Amino acid sequence: MTWYFDSHIHLSDPHYSSDMDFTLQEMEFLKIKACCVSMDAENSLQTLELAKKSNLVLPFIGIHPECANDDLEKVVDLIENNHDTLAGIGEIGLDPTYTNNDEDSKRQTVVFETLLSCAEKSHKPVSIHSRKSLDDILQIMTSYNTEHALLHWFDGSKKQLQKAMDMGFFVSFGPVMIYANDKQTLLSKSDESKILVETDGPVRFSRCFEMKSAQISFIPSVIFAASKVLGKSFDDTASLLEKNSNSYLGI
After folding, report:
1. Phi and psi of 54, rounded to 5°?
2. Is the pTM of this model over 0.90?
């Protein structure tokens, strides 16, 4: 039996709380496991609690670059104290969109590098946010292990993609890939063993999704779109993605 994986979703976001029981049942029915990423210390605690409800929720905790001023020490402690139950570290990374000055940028870098060090120490995969910062991310990561590192929602150039592939990163593609030619091109040029799929819910998507917040049930549609780009059957693509997801997670 093949399991589907959503490699990056904010399932512990308040948007999902009212329908969580239904979502967990849906995951069981559709055979989908979710890498549930976090935004800050409080949300990391919520992620850990959610993971107790279902073994299909794979908890990732960390500090998103938008929340770089959050309690870093608390998250480091959470990582150390929950080592056995954690699936990974994330969402972490850099994003100049959320900086106003050099101090903000330095703080993002300190948080990112501290949590990367935690991931290496605890031998956990990382889910990386790299919007408008991909070159900086790639440079920083030359000092860290990239074997279990995911550049989620990859949106770089073909040259940056090749560098990411050379460095051994995983890259993930989401619902936008269903209708965006540039994302389909990037997918087609990715190493097949390094491709993952995601929703990044509750992000909203246009076109065929009518600006609805992403649901984990979007994953089969993303897999179907990927199968067309890769020239494979749906089942073969799903099997490939399951193998890749397990490799990323180190299981």
Report:
1. -155, 135
2. yes
